[in-house]
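tool_log.txt
---
The assistant was asked to compare two proteins side by side. It first ran the structure predictor on the initial sequence, then on the second. Raw inputs and outputs are pasted verbatim so the downstream comparison step can read them without reformatting.
(1)
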Amino acid sequence: MTIKFYMENSYIRELEAEIIEKKFRNNKYYIKLNRTIFYPHLSGGQPKDLGTINDLEVIDVYEEGEDIVHVLEDNINVTKVKLSINWENRMDLMQQHTGQHLLSAVIHKLYNGETSSFYIGNDYSSIDIDLPNFKDEDIEKIELLANRIIYSNFKIKTYIVNKNDLKNIPLRKKPSVNSNIRIVEIEGFDYSPCGGTHLSSTGEIGIIKIRKWDKKRGNLRIEFLCGNRALHDYSWKNASIREISVLLSSKETDVLTSIKKLYEAKEKLEKENRDLRENLYKLKGDNILNEIKYSNGIGIIYKELEDMDFKELNLIANYLNTKEHLIQIYGLHNGKKAHLFVSCTKDLDLDLSQIFKSLSEKYEIKGGGNSTTVQGGVKADELSSIMKDFANCIIKKLKVRIP
C-alpha cells in the first residue's frame, strides 16, 4: 500500500521514497513507491500532479487498488528516489478544486441546487447543477457571497471519519465510500466528502469568477475560473478592451455600445450589398436570357466560363430557374480547377441526378445534387467532354437540340 502524503498535507512539494515494485511494458516503466506526494489522475475528478522522480518526468499517475502507480519513460536504477511535484500546477488545481467546493456550497445554500458533476480542464472548470436556469442577478448574488467568503479567509481542514460519525456532520452530499471517509470542511460553512488536494484557507482561492452558464442535458452547466486563472482571464480581456477602446476612440466603459453601433451599421451595409448583388445577378441573368436559343419550346444555355466565382454562378442560375422551360449547362474554369454545373426548371420531365450518376461511372466527378441541380469538380482536360456527354443525355431524353 502506498502512503499518500497529499491526503495529510497538500503543501509538501518534495519527498524521499523507496521503490517497492517496478515493471517495464509498452516501452514505459511502471513504478510503485512506499509513499508519494503525486495525486493520481482523475481520482475523484481531479487531474494528476505533474513533476519528476530523480529529475525524470512522470508522464502519468494512477490508482491501482491501494497503490499509486507512477509512469516514466526512463529507467531508475536505484531504490531510494526523490519526488518533486510541479508546485504551480498543484496550486492551480487546489485553487480550482477548493473553489469548486465553495461555489457548489454557495449555490446549494442560496438555491438548494445539487452539484451532479464537476470538471477541471486546462482552461476552465465547470460544475453541473440540477437547476433549470439562472438569471444575471442570480450569478451576481452567487459570485458576491462566494467571494465574500474568500475574503473572510475561512479556515479549511480535512479529517477522516467513519460512517457512524456522519450523523453529526451536515454533509452537502453523500460519500462514495463506507469507511475512512475524508471530509473537507470550509470552517462551519460546508462539509463535503472528498479525496482531493485542497487549500488551507479560502483566502488562497484568490477570487471566483463565473464565465458562462447554459443548459446541458437537463442540468445547468456553470463554467468558472479561480485564482491565477481568473487573474489571467482578467488581464487579457482588460488588454483587449483597452486596445478596442483606442481603435474606437471611446471610453472603455462605452466599448460595448460603440461595437453595437458598428454591428448595426455593418448589418445595414451587408443588406445593401446583398440587394445590390441580387440586382447585379438579375441583370447578368437577363443578359444571358437574351442569348438563349430555343429548341422544341425549351430554352437552353450551354456555356464554358473562365475565372467566375462559383457562388456567383449559382446565384445567377437560381434566378434563371424562376423562369420556365429552361436548361442550364455550365463549365467553369478557375486556373487548374474545373467545375461542372447543370440545372433545369422544375416544369421539365428531367432527372439530372440520374444523368450525373451514369456519367460518374465514366468520369471522375466529385460532387452530387438532386433532380433539378447537380454540380461537381472535374479534371480540367475532361470538362468539355463531360459537358457534351451531359448535353447528349438531355437531348435523348427531351428530344431537343443543344445550340
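(2)
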Amino acid sequence: MEAQFTNRQRAEVLTQALPYIKQYRGKIVVVKYGGNAMVSDELKQQVMEDIALLWLIGVKVVLVHGGGPEISQTMKRLGKEAVFVDGLRVTDKETVDIVQMVLAGKVNKTLVNLLQMKGGHAVGLSGIDGGILEARMKDEALGYVGEITKVRAQPILDLLEKNYIPVVSTIAGDRQGNTYNINGDTAAAWIAGALHAERLIMMTDIDGILYNKDDPNSLIPELRVSQARQLFAQNVISGGMIPKVDCCIEAIGKGVKNVVILDGRVPHSILMELLTNEGAGTLVRGD
C-alpha cells in the first residue's frame, strides 16, 4: 500500500527545503540533460517538472541538452549507420545535417514545450544562435565533430534577465558557416564556466562516481579535484567516466563553484540534490 503524506508532513518537507531555496534563489544552475536519462517519457516529464519548479522558486536554470539516441534512431530511419570512434560519433556532412535537425529541431522544441506545459517560460536555442558556441574541427577523421574555441554567454544571460529558461542544444558554428556536433558534457562545462554558475548538474545513467563500478553501494558522495586526479591514477575512474570527470574538472577550472554527477533515471534527482541535506550523486568541488 502506497504511503500517504499528511498535510503536516508536506509542510515539514517544504520548511526543510527553505534554507536550500534561499541558497539557490537568484543563482545560475546549469543542468546537462541527454542520453539515457532522456529515453523514458515519464522521466522526461519529471525532469521538466523539477526544472520548472526550480524556476518558479527563483533559481536561474539553464538546460543544456544532447540527444544521441534520437540522432541514432533518425539516422537508422534514413538508412544511415551510426559509426563511433572512442565514443565520438563520426559526423560527415549528411550526418551533421541530421544532428542539427534532431537537436536544434525536434529534441529542443519538445523540451521547450514540456517546460511550458509544466508552468515554466522557456526559449530554445542552439549553440549557433547568437554565436553562443564557436568551434573548429576536432579531428578530420571524425568529420564535423567540434572542439569549442569560444563561448558567448550574453544571449543566455539576456534570457535569464528576462526570466526565461534557456534550453540550449549542443551544436556549434564557425566563421566559415560550418556546423559542428559538440559533446554534450563538454558544451555544458564550457557554458557553465562562461556563466560562472553556482552549480553544474550532469545527469547520467549511473549513481555517480563509484569506488567499485560493479557495486552501487560504493558511491563517493564528495570529491575534491585533487582527489579525483588521484582516482584517475588508481584506475578507480575509468572508461566512460573519465571524460565526464574531466568535464567536471574543466568546469571548476572555468569558474563553476561545484559540479554534481547524478543518476538522471532516479525520479526528481535534481530536487533531491539541490533542496535536501542528503543530496544525490557525487559532488566535485575545487581544492
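---
observation on (2): The first helix runs from residue 7 to 24. The chain has a mean pLDDT of 89.
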